[in-house]
Amino acid sequence: MSLYFIYIRIFFQTIGECKMPTLFSINYIYFVISLYSAVLLFPVNSLIAQSKRTDPNEVNLLVVKDTAMAAVYFDKAQTLAQSAKFDSSNFYYRQALDIYSKLSEKPGQEVWEQLTRCHSNIGNNLWKLGKYRDAEKSLSNALEIGLKNLGNDHSEIARCYTRMAIVHTIEGDYDRAVENIEKSLAISVAKYPEIAAKNYNNIGIIQVEKGDYDKALEYYQKALSIRMPLLGEDHPDIGRTYSNIGNVYWYKGDYDKALEYHKKDLSIETKAFGTEHLEVATVYHNIGMIYATKGDHNQALEFWGKTLAIRLQALGKDHPLTASTYFNISLAYMEMEQFTEAIENGEKSLTIRTRIFGENSPDVAQSCHLLGNIFFENGQPVKALNYLERALTIRLEKLGDFHPDVALSYYLLGEVYAAQNEYQTALDYCQKSVIASVAGFDDKSYYHNPPLEGINHKTTLLKNLKLKAKIFALVARNTGSEDLEMALATYMLAAELIDKIRSGYKAEGSKLFLRETESELYENAIQTALMLYQNSGDEHYKHQAFTLVEKGKSAVLSAGLAEAHARQFAHLPAHLLEKEQQLRIELAFYETQLEKEKFNNPRPDSTKISELENRLFDLKSERDRLIEDFEKNYPAYHELKYQSQSASIQELQNYLPENTVLLEYFVGKRIIHIFAVSRNEFEVISAEITDIFPSLIADFYGSAVKAKTQGYLAAAGELSGLLI
Q1: Crossing angle for the helix pair 155-170 and 174-191, to the nearest 10 degrees
Q2: Ranges 319-323, 667-671, 684-688: which has the least confidence
Q3: Of 135, 97, 132, which is closest to residue 115 (Cα–Cα)?
Q4: Do 351 and 377 form a contact (C-beta atoms < 8 A)?
Q5: Cα–Cα distance measured from residue 666 to residue 677, given in angstroms and rounded to the nearest whole number
Q6: Residues with Cβ < 8 Å from 408, sequence gap 6 or more?
Q7: Tens of pLDDT along 432-488?
Q8: Which residues, listed in sequence order, are joined to residue 671 by a DSSP beta bridge?
Q9: Model pTM score
């Protein structure tokens, strides 16, 4: 504090007590250190100085004084907005606005600019406070003043259109949002690159809302390419763009890749704002979503608890972001089967959203969908249907027939009816979900499956195909082989879709997570194929079962081998192969260093961990760009990498020598399927998993690792008797 007073003494000594520049500089110094009484005192001193003037050229000193005072208020408002104190910020913007409004009687370009900025910034704060109608009114005022007095191509006009688009996007009015973005881009794309980047970012957000995730990713990357050279890699806007990209990967089901981007954003935001800022709360929110999706609900609740504390402090209870946090906490409690807490938080979310958005917004539909899911899981189907049907009605009205959220509504309604043994109604909803997921597919017969093209959300379609197949298998108990064949055909399509999803994942952890979560699908599909074989004796079904085993247990390994094969035989330039090899070496090194620091160091260094995570993020991003270059510019690489055809039984038999048997196992939750292939025969044996099987596997593995010969031989003997 004393440093500022030293500056004041220097000003007085150098320029003199009654010089106007001195007084306004002191005024600003006192503003910076928040000595508000001094800020109010110095305008009086300014008037004293004005009364003592003798220079006839100082005829506009009063205007100068007012302009300087308005600037003080404006700067104070900006500082408060950066600290997420939006109400206080608007108080000072309005103080500045009052002064600029009076000065508009003696207009100048700067006055009109500041008038426009004040209205625009007030609107920007209002939407962050969840007051969307008031925000729209302020932004309209800004546009009216700006268009009349600044012209059509001023940066403030472009910025107003961008902010208006944000408000319309939040309200679910995407057509008006796009209209405003197009107006802003027409002004900004050539002259104001930072505003153009904001527009591209907003188009990405709209594309996410519409369910076009690839298009969203394209616009986010476009925004990033503009912002990076303008702002530098540690700017918060860069971090937010990373977070948006992470959200796209989350929607696409690539959870580990999403986590990489959100952790990169967290590093940037905490460096810029500390750990208690609203922007940091948003990153906590996103990271919690990923952990929840991966099934780690305790970790998710930890992050959402941090989010809620920050948002309640900064925004209060009645804010959309607070409602979103209650929504997520409700979701976690539902997954943990703590239904009382789930309902309590879900209802808080719904109440806040209804009060802010009205009865028919996409956010209200989301809360209704969650409450429907909770009541379904809690064994209350009537209440579940009420909420789910309300959610569906809103989504159809606001989002249209072809949208991932509409597909999700139909899917969950299908689950509820299937649980009530109302299979025909359940299948009708499954088919509607398929139609809402696949562009150009509108066949209402649930005996027809879609092509795997034009899908707006692959993971939702996968869930739906699994449910549809399961229902057909249940129906087949009473109806016979036609419905069982339909179940198998749907399972086979789902397995094909898994291949497509996996090929789009960049992170290995996401591929392994998909393998773990979809093991039940393969188990049910294999069981269905073998039932058809037992019923009909048709060898084709036995061969399909074997194909499913191969797909289910070796997909991640075979994908890695395929990529290695592609690198070897796609005629890639030597320098690119060398670069790819070097990146793999560096990635392995830094991943090892990170694991050591996290788990082997008794006192992990959080700064070092953050540095290692940032280095890994940069290396992985560079590797991804290189692989994308391979796939784009070397077609043979792409073809070899993504070929997923397994060897047929006939091909295997042709390679097997005489007196040799190949054994292939699939271990499900309840049954082990053992496939025996020799040069001339192909048999399958199924056995129930006994209670001692898991402990035998553990003993076998543990003995091998620890080189305990007796334990190894004992476990191996028992397993041989069971498996061979």
Answers
A1: 150
A2: 667-671
A3: 97
A4: no
A5: 14
A6: 369, 433, 457, 460
A7: 999 999 988 999 999 999 998 888 788 889 999 999 999 999 999 888 778 999 999
A8: 688
A9: 0.61
